[in-house]
Amino acid sequence: MWGGGKLGSSGGWFLRVLGPGGRNTKAVRPLISSVYVKNQLSWILQIKPGVFNEYRTMWFKSYRTTFSCLNRIKSFRYRWARLYSTSQTTVDSGEVKTFLALAHKWWDEQGIYAPLHSMNDLRVPFIRDNLLKTIPNHQPGKPLFGMKILDVGCGGGLLTEPLGRLGASVIGIDPVDENIKTAQCHKSFDPVLDKRIEYRVCSLEEIVEETAETFDAVVASEVVEHVIDLETFLQCCCQVLKPSGSLFITTINKTQLSYALGIVFSEQIAAIVPKGTHTWEKFVSPETLESILESNGLSVQTVVGMLYNPFSGYWHWSENTSLNYAAHAVKSGVQEHPMSAEFAFKGEAEELQANACTNPAVHEELKK
Fold first, then answer.
1. DSSP classification of residue 226
2. Nearest CA among 230, 225, 322 for reference residue 277
3. Which of 52, 273, 336, 339 could bridge to 277 as Cys pair (CB 3.0-4.6 Å)?
4. Three-class SS state of 169
5. CB count, 10 Å around CB of 30?
6. For 280-315, how does the pLDDT look when each residue is reduced to its tens digit (9 = 90+)?
C-alpha cells in the first residue's frame, strides 16, 4: 500500500510505499503533483506493494507521453485557479475618494468631464467598427444588437449609454456608489436604454466568477491608469470574455511627455482635470500592456495614438502614442475549460490501466 506525500526541498512530492504492518519500504521521487497520477498508480501498488519500485522505470518510460500531458494540464489548472483566487482588490481607495467628490459632474458636457464626452467621437466608432468585423449580419440602426458588453469603471455611464444605443446589452460596473446612482438616474430618462443597460456597484474581480466567459466585449476606457494591480485587472478582463471576445482599452502612455502634458499642464496649469486625478507611476506603455495581454491569451490587434486639443475641445487619431492611445485585443478562440481537461484525463487514465491489464508482458510481471 502507499502512504501520503511530503514536500521535498526542491518542491517535488514524495510517495512513500508502505510494506506489511505499515513499515516504510521506499520513498519514490519525483512524482508529478497531480491527483490523477496518484489514482493511476495506486492500481499497481495495491496489487503488489513492492512492484512499483522495481518497475518504475518501465512505467515512466511506457507512459512518458501521459506524464508530459499531465505537466501541461497541471500548469493550465494553476493559471486558471490563480485568476479565481483574487483575494486583493484592484481598486485604489484614494482614487475612489477622488471620483466620489466629482460624481455629480459626469453629465456636464462643459465641465471637468468634457474631454471624456468629446472622446466618444473616437472611442465609440473604434469599438463599434472592430466589433462589426465579427458580426456577419447586423441590423440597421442597431448594429451591435445581440452582443453583451461589460463597461468596467463606467463612471456616470458616458460610454455605456452610446453602446446601449447601438443595440448592445451593456453592464456597467463601478466601485463608486455615487457614480452608479448618477448613471442610473440619467439612463432612466430613456426607456430604451433602461432595458438594455444594467449598472452595478462593484469591482471587476468581485464578479469574475459569476460572469466567466460571458461577454462578447469588455471595455476599460480611461481605467487602467487608476488600478493598483494592473496584471490582476487584465487577467480578470480576459476571464470574463468569451473565446474570440474583444477587449478595448484607452489609457495614457508612461513617457516624459505624458507627465509634462498629462499632469503638469492638464492638472496644475490649465486645470483641464482636477489635481490628483492621475498618478504618473500608474501610466502604462503600449509595450507593457501588450506583454501582459499576450501572457493572458489575448492577441493585440490595434494600438493607435489619440491626441486632445484643449483649445478646440476635440480629439483626433494619431500615429504618435506617446500621450493617449487606444488598444484592441482579441481573446484566443480555443479555450478548453480545465474541468473538461481533467475529466478527459480520467478517461485516459482508465484506458491506460485497462491496456496494462490486457498486456500479457505487464500482467505476467505483476504476478511475480
1. G
2. 225
3. 273
4. strand
5. 12
6. 899 999 999 999 999 999 999 999 999 999 999 999
